[in-house]
Amino acid sequence: MEHNTPKFQEEYAAKIPAMTLLANLGWTFLAPAEALALRGGKQDQVVLREVLRKVLSNRTFVFAGESHPLSNNSVDNIISQLCSPALNEGLRHANEKIYNHLLYGMPVTEFVNGKKVSPTIQLIDWHNLNNNEFHFTEEYSVTRANGLDSRRPDIVCFVNGLPLVVIEAKRPDGNAQKGPTVLEGISQSLRNQRPDEIPHLFAYTQLLLSINGSEGRYGTVETPEKFWAAWREEDINDAEMLALKNKKRSSDDINALFAHRHPRDLAWYQNLLAGGDLMLSGQDRLLISLLSHERLFDMVRYFTIFDQKIGKIVGRYQQVFGIKRLIERIQKRRSDGSREGGVIWHTTGSGKSFTMVFLSKTLILTDALKQCRVIVVTDRVDLEDQLAKTFASGGELSSKKDRESAMATSGKRLAQQIGRGNERIVFTLIQKFNSATKLKNATTQAQILLC
Length: 451
Hints:
Layout: H1 10-24, E1 28-30, H2 32-38, H3 49-57, E2 60-63, E3 66-69, H4 72-82, H5 91-104, E4 106-107, E5 110-112, E6 115-117, E7 120-121, E8 134-138, E9 142-143, E10 150-151, E11 155-159, E12 162-169, H6 181-192, H7 199-202, E13 207-211, E14 216-219, H8 238-245, H9 251-258, H10 263-274, H11 282-291, H12 293-301, E15 304-307, E16 311-314, H13 317-330, H14 352-365, E17 374-378, H15 381-393, H16 400-406, H17 411-419, E18 425-429, H18 431-436, H19 444-450
Parallel strand pairs: 1-8, 12-13, 17-18
Antiparallel strand pairs: 2-3, 4-7, 5-6, 8-11, 9-10, 11-12, 13-14, 15-16
Helix pairs in contact: 1-11, 3-4, 13-14, 14-15
Domain Restriction endonuclease type I HsdR N-terminal: 8-226
Catalytic activity: Endonucleolytic cleavage of DNA to give random double-stranded fragments with terminal 5'-phosphates, ATP is simultaneously hydrolyzed
InterPro entries: P-loop_NTPase, Restrct_endonuc_type1_HsdR_N, SWI2_SNF2, Type-I_R_enzyme_R_subunit
């Protein structure tokens, strides 16, 4: 009779449902003792080194038309670099450095038949999900910076041994005077990022979630509480989500999740399943939307930027789905070979500048569109300057020279940039199109753009 009683503690209301759903999404569970063994039994180490080593040992590089495996020395060097985040310059800097390694890979030195080569090795295979390892664990003990005690985030998700997601699970019944329990999880996550806590874990994280069984919010490293966002899914319908939530799993799979727990936890879960299909919660929708493997890769690769003023930014659902629809549209061709166009409507303060940066990044990283050029048209000098700074800060204009060459300083310059230039990004005021098309040698491209 005890197991029929509803449980409202965070374990039964939030954490166990989150863990079972992650397993249904294709994440492999590691009991806390297994996860500790994979990091050499050291709680001050946060990377699952043995998993990372296995992945890197299977990576290859091409030289002179032939594929070669990584040497043990290169594998050791990559692991050594990755496991020593530069926290002396602050968490944000350390996180950005590791993010760049994730996105662009890491160079190594190899010798093939006596010849020195310097290939770049991808830590994550962004194009083939099956070439990556996905694990998660609970109660992940990490030694604090003082070396005396530890913190235990509720759930940590790893890709190739790197802790990319941290989840705090809270009970759904909060104290009304303290506010929703989701806020407690956010507060705990922010506390754990402080220099005297466990910042070495957050040097790797890309998404942070706070859930309470019925709802959830997400952010990233150093996201202030007020900017942790809800999610509204537009691509995965409820029928698909319900199928994932109620995916039938073998007894062995279920037992693996509960083997390290008290038997009553497994009995409670089995009793829950006996009642029939489980309903979707807001927590389920958030986890499916952000932590299915493909979506997580999209969020990390396309919808994450670092702004020098604001910090690390991860896209909101409006930006993500707006850009997804735009990418789908511009890949379509009319009968005359031209592309389809469209409009994304923004209100003041809705993040349109960052939407443009996300879009440019997505275009450049999408194989079918990476040769594209982006022309940003505004109607005010101050907005043009602001956008240029946003692009530069977000990493799309890597130097002052890039930014200067991207600016259309006159109608003549604009016509030249469009017709014969090779700048990937061009900024212009709409007024300059008027003078550009009146030039004797005005390009047909400028005329077409004006139309």
